[in-house]
Design brief:
single chain; 2 domains; alpha/beta; elongated; 13 helices; Endonuclease, Chain A; seven-stranded mixed beta sheet; about 15% strand; 434 Repressor (Amino-terminal Domain)
């Protein structure tokens, strides 16, 4: 967990403690407040020490129980402030996979110039249904999240592809050749995915680059990321998504993207790399 995120969580916890100790009807102990709320006593302690992230409902109940409901909006603003940067998968996926896809659909729909780098899997907007289904299933298993809306999530991810055909939008996407080789789905699905990528090269709204094996790299591949309109970065870790919009961070990711782009091939050369991956797959 990032230092900034943890500091923000601890700051929120201190504010909660302050509200408990200044309750209009007299200061409450943690145990008294927990009993009033019907919570385990440890929950109050974890929230106040910054060891657990409050939910909006936790904040509503807490402020009501200490007789200061007017503080709810202030606390909610604080919560939204630091959660807008780090969005844990556990919390996001509690409502299912389709809502997460809807968030990304909306974010990409608002952008006109989109840049992406990925070394692990095909980026979502270029995925075929079979490939997307396999990727989402892997992540559901990793996080122990619900799978009952898997097909709805796949459909939502496919809805995003309509953006590829909207004039005035440009996708600059770079993939490592390793993405073309990773068998993260059944071979038939990977074959279909590679065939789809071959067609993407001809789209006017997409500039697809491939960094081949053996290419000279000025940077290690690192984690995949998106940059929207040179103003916001979205990247993923195993536990969370990071959404960042401060100028220094965006500048760093743009520099990384442009550096990786120097190692990419395009057009017929990119097509040759995809074809080579297809031949290698068929020979297995």
């Amino acid at each position: 967990m990032s230092t900034d995120y943890q500091q923000a969580r601890e700051s929120l916890g201190l504010r909660l403690r302050e509200l408990r100790l200044t309750a209009p009807d007299g200061r409450l102990t943690g145990a008294q407040l927990a009993e009033r709320l019907g919570w385990p006593a440890s929950k109050v302690s974890k929230l106040e020490l910054g060891k657990q992230t409050a939910t909006p409902e936790d904040l509503r109940q807490f402020t009501a129980a200490v007789g200061q409901p007017e503080a709810y909006e202030e606390l909610l603003s604080r919560l939204r402030g630091f959660e807008s940067q780090i969005r844990s998968w556990r919390r996001q996926l509690a409502a299912g996979h389709r809502p997460v896809q809807a968030v990304h659909n909306h974010a990409q729909a608002k952008a006109k110039v989109l840049r992406a780098w990925e070394s692990s899997w095909v980026v979502g907007i270029l995925q075929t249904p079979g490939y997307a289904r396999a990727i989402l299933r892997h992540f559901a298993q990793l996080h122990g999240s619900r799978l009952d809306d898997l097909e709805d999530a796949v459909a939502a991810r496919m809805e995003r592809q309509r953006l590829l055909y909207e004039p005035g939008r440009k996708y600059h996407i770079i993939l490592s050749e390793s993405v073309l080789r990773h068998l993260v789905c059944p071979p038939a699905d990977l074959a279909a995915q590679l065939s789809y990528l071959s067609g993407v090269i001809d789209l006017k709204t997409v500039e697809l680059g491939i960094v081949p094996f053996g290419a000279s790299l000025k940077l290690p591949p690192g984690a995949g990321f998106w940059v929207y309109d040179d103003r916001q970065v979205v990247t993923e870790t195993w536990h969370a998504e990071l959404w960042m919009d401060d100028e220094a961070t965006v500048a760093t990711y743009l520099k990384a993207w442009k550096t990786l782009q120097e190692s990419a091939v395009y057009g017929a050369d990119a097509q040759n790399v995809i074809n080579a991956a297809s031949r290698a797959l068929s020979s297995r």
